[in-house]
Specification:
The protein is an all-alpha fold and about 170 residues long. The protein has 9 helices and no strands. InterPro entries: RecX_HTH_3rd, Regulatory_RecX, WH-like_DNA-bd_sf.
Amino acid sequence: MQKRIVRKIDTEDKAYAFALKKLSYKDYSEQAMLTLLAKEQCPSAVQQAVLAKLKEYSFLNDEVYAARVYRAWLNKKYYGKKHLLLELKKKEVSEACTAEVLAEYDDELDYNRACNALTAWQKQYNKQEDPLSDKLLAKAIRALFSRGFNNNSIQKALRRLEQKIVD
């Protein structure tokens, strides 16, 4: 196993070049960029100067980054609001930007995504004799909770499934 070589970045030019190199591979939030610079033993004053310069040239913008994370997350069809919240926290998006993104996400979208997830889950277990058995419903509820859906959306999706089966 190779050991990670820690460079000490002590000038603003080196830190800026390092940040641009990292941003050429993928986007980062402001906090994540500060973490990267700190790992390279960059002084705090240099970190702040580089961050200000990156913001000035619009290379680093938490609002745009949060919107990109949200759009990418929307392509994952079978996850709920709590999963989105964890994804934004993992990417170190600021609380204000997280609140803005979560405001766009409504209960109707959560319900539709829960129905899609339940339908996909049901395809795996459609060979069961009684699709409304307590054991199978408990499995479905656990599966939806683990994907980040709230209780209300899960209950609505299960009612919709029961209506489809009864009809």
